[in-house]
Amino acid sequence: MQALDKNLLEKRIGSVTSIPISEWQHFLSLVCLRQYRPGDEYGRNHVGLIQSGLFRAFYRQESGEDLHREFAREEDFICYLTLYQTSETEDLVIEAVEPSVVTTLTLDQLEGLYKRHLCWADFGRKITEEALMKKLRRERQLLSSNLADRYQQFRSDYGAMEARLPQHMIASFLGASPVSLSRIRATLK
Predict the structure, then answer these.
(1) 96-127 confidence digits (pLDDT tens)
(2) Checking CA distances to 76, which of 11, 64, 96, 110 falls within 20 to 30 Å?
(3) In the chain, which ranges are E strands?
(4) ∠ Cα 137 129 58 (to 5°)
(5) Alpha carbon distance 57, 72 (integer Å)
(6) pTM for this one?
(7) What angle do CA 148, 81, 2 make, to 5 degrees?
């Protein structure tokens, strides 16, 4: 198993807010590494930072079709946002696409950090704002852009991740069929 990447944690969390050394030490005593195999679901009562690997967040329709909401890769935070904010359940599934390692905390531990020091409440607010802005950008894109523009934006936002994902997942994320995505890819080459 991989070792905890403290540099990655410090870099990514430090990009969100400043954390005093004593709080880092306490935080590091709480986190643990979890490994996921492709198809494993991410824990519903956890928040984490992906150290390695790739996840997808999707809604499974009664027909069996998956509607992809987002993808998360190395250095991305993941959690079930509605649980994190409201304790409500949702139909969203977060699942590993490839072997993955995630540094995790339980939501109860995160709540304890919020009460312990203001820096953690600031962190929580900022990552929630980050997730909201990402969701709003995606919503605007789905409502106002054509498939070619959405695909170009996907390539800009996700870069090399495209090679790590099956075409049907990317098509679903873009709100298109795999055939339509294939046509767009062919015209853009």
Answers:
(1) 999 999 999 999 999 999 999 999 999 999 99
(2) 64
(3) 32-36, 46-52, 54-60, 66-73, 77-79, 92-96, 100-106
(4) 55
(5) 8
(6) 0.90
(7) 90
